[in-house]
Amino acid sequence: MTRTPPPAVVIEGLRVIRGGRTVIPDLDLVVPTGSVVGLLGPSGSGKSTVIRTIVGVQIVAGGTITVLGEPAGSPTLRRRVAYVTQSPSVYGDLTVLENVRYVARMLGLADPDRAAAAAVAEVDLTAAAHDLVDRLSGGQRSRVSLAAALVGQPDLLVLDEPTVGLDPVLRRDLWALFGRLAAAGRTLLVSSHVMDEATRCDRLILLRHGDVLADLTPTELLDRTGAIDPERAFLALIEGHEAGAS
């Protein structure tokens, strides 16, 4: 019998206050291992705050966040968790390969040159490997950030709006890559406000004002709401939630 692995992320009773305002009131959330989980919701729903708690850079007012069996932010997670921010975190005066090799060396990888080349190839940037990042398009810079995150082969990859500003072909290719990574046993938490990307996830967590409106598969989302697409389904959930609160 195959044993189900423990969840990659477990959040219980999370409460976050920013600027004197409660942005996450009481959040419970589970991210299964070896899957692509979409953290979806409009701007201001709390996606980035939740992500920051998972990677251990957000001060919390209450609750527990367990990541890969350890408290979020533990030193032991530094090589096991990779975080790709909305804005590319790369050096413009270095080449693509130099950026990724630098991260590989920071992580203490045995063969940083080989690891960097493999990560650059994984995001389809080999042809631009020796180009300065400042000369790349916005979409290419985003992929350099992704390569830097992948170089250490993390167990958990946290991606904050990774497809913003990318053309449809690049978005398709990145989601195909996310699927391959999950199939190889890695866990991906992908935040997005683009609802048509929901169908590419194994599981969906829909946020609204720091609350979880739903935690289900794309098929379950459509079945539950009777909607014909994820955007209409999400709107139906919002309307139902607001009606219940009134």
Describe the structure.
- Helix content is 34%, strand content 25%.
- By secondary structure, the chain is an alpha/beta fold.
- It has a six-stranded mixed sheet, with helices on both faces. A four-stranded antiparallel sheet has the order 2-1-4-5, covered by helices on one side.
At a glance:
The chain is an alpha/beta fold. The protein has seven helices and ten strands.
Can you lay out the helices and strands and say which pair or pack?
Layout: E1 9-18, E2 21-31, E3 36-40, H1 47-54, E4 62-67, E5 70-71, E6 81-84, H2 96-106, H3 112-122, H4 138-150, E7 156-160, H5 168-183, E8 187-192, E9 203-208, E10 211-216, H6 218-225, H7 230-245
Helix pairs in contact: 2-3, 2-4, 3-4, 6-7
Question: Order of helices and strands, N to C?
Answer: EEEHEEEHHHEHEEEHH
Task: State which percent range the strand residues make up.
Answer: 15-25%
Give the spatial strand order of the biggest sheet.
Answer: 6-7-8-3-9-10
Radius of gyration: 18 Å
Helix content: 25-40%
Oligomer: single chain
Low-pLDDT windows of residues:
none
General shape:
globular
Taking the alpha carbons of the first and last residues, their distance comes to 48 Å
Mean pLDDT: 91
Task: Please outline the major beta sheet.
Answer: 6 strands, mixed
Specify the number of helices: 7
Total strands = 10
* Secondary structural class: alpha/beta
Descriptive key words:
single chain; 246 residues; alpha/beta; 6-stranded mixed sheet; 4-stranded antiparallel sheet; 34% helix; globular
